[in-house]
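Exercise 7. Given the encoded structure of a 342-residue chain, write a plausible sequence.
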């Protein structure tokens, strides 16, 4: 097994998640393969920065509290953590998630192969209501930051990992640059994303022999608040995904930017609709709702993509890549088995 040190980065932004943050850090401390350090990166919240500094300011080097050194947003927070990390591997954990005991163990195993530049894991939803809403299709679990139906099981090669449960060799960022700012969540109300997709495509362009994996034994449990169990959030998030995908496609080209999505929309989603309709015909709860949600989600994402594409053509790319060598920049100069991860 790899003996490389692992730094874990947890980006935080609100005191409303105080107990979640403590739980996330606690889950890292209980790993069967210990992390070299945990970096808590606070996104422009002085009160939270001070409170966490007091909580973990007891001289223990295993937890360090840092202020986001870049603009507001998740990407800049991650980049701050990357710059400060001492480990040869940098792992990312959402601030409202807890990792199972062998999370880092299975990540580290993937790096025995020197070609492996990134390893992601499996993210399971923890619903605030205690159970999945009957209408919510598993094919759209990415809406709440979780692994969705359609991904292959086991340890498989992918186009991109999912940012809330992922790890990278630190050297990958030296080659490709950091997470692009201006594409993902930046503190506004619109739930944008895709920054990890853009990074992974940029990485494999800069390193054509690089291998990116998902190992479904690296499990975390991600909280889904009540507001995100509602159809209104589902519709908003799928629309925002379309906007984000338009930016990625504008940057890296539709061929690479949408290769996973083609299989997803032509095979995974039609099968989901058929399953929902069959369940409805058999009188099972939620079947018709799941089929309808899939159709609505596709329509919202398509609408966002069309509008985002028009805006991108009119205004140009609107995100930037910190620290990227010029050779690693997308061809436009802008801003998961392969082809199966969003």
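Solution.
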């Amino acid at each position: 097994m790899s003996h490389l040190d692992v730094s874990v980065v947890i980006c935080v932004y609100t005191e409303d998640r105080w107990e979640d943050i403590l739980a996330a850090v606690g889950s890292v401390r209980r790993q069967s393969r210990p992390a070299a350090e945990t970096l808590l990166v606070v996104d422009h919240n002085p009160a939270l920065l001070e409170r966490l500094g007091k909580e973990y300011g007891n001289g223990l080097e295993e937890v360090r509290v840092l202020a986001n050194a870049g603009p507001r947003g998740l990407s800049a927070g991650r980049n701050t953590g990357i710059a400060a990390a001492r480990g040869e591997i940098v792992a990312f954990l959402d601030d409202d998630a807890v990792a199972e005991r062998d999370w880092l163990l299975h990540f580290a195993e993937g790096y025995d192969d020197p070609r492996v530049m990134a390893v992601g894991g499996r993210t399971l939803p923890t619903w605030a209501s205690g159970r999945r809403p009957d209408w919510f299709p598993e094919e759209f679990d990415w809406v709440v930051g979780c692994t969705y139906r359609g991904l292959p099981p086991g340890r498989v090669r992918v186009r991109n990992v999912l940012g809330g449960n992922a790890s990278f060799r630190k050297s990958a960022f030296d080659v490709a640059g950091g997470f692009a700012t201006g594409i993902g969540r930046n503190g506004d109300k619109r739930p944008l994303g895709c920054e990890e997709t853009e990074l992974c495509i940029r990485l494999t362009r800069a390193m054509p022999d690089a291998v990116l994996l998902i190992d479904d034994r690296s499990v975390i449990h991600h909280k889904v608040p009540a507001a995100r169990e509602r159809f209104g959030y589902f519709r908003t998030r799928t629309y925002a995904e379309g906007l984000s995908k338009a930016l990625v496609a504008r940057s890296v080209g539709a061929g690479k930017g949408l290769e996973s999505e083609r299989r997803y929309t032509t095979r995974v989603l039609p099968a989901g609709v058929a399953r929902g309709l069959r369940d409805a015909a058999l009188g099972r709860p939620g079947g018709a709702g799941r089929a309808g949600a899939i159709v609505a989600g596709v329509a919202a994402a398509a609408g966002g993509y069309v509008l985002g594409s028009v805006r991108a053509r009119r205004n140009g790319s609107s995100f930037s890549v910190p620290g990227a060598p010029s050779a690693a920049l997308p061809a436009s100069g802008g801003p998961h088995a392969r082809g199966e991860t969003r």
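Remark. Strands lie at 6-12, 37-42, 63-67, 89-93, 97-99, 116-127, 155-157, 165-169, 211-224. Students should compare their own answers with the one above.
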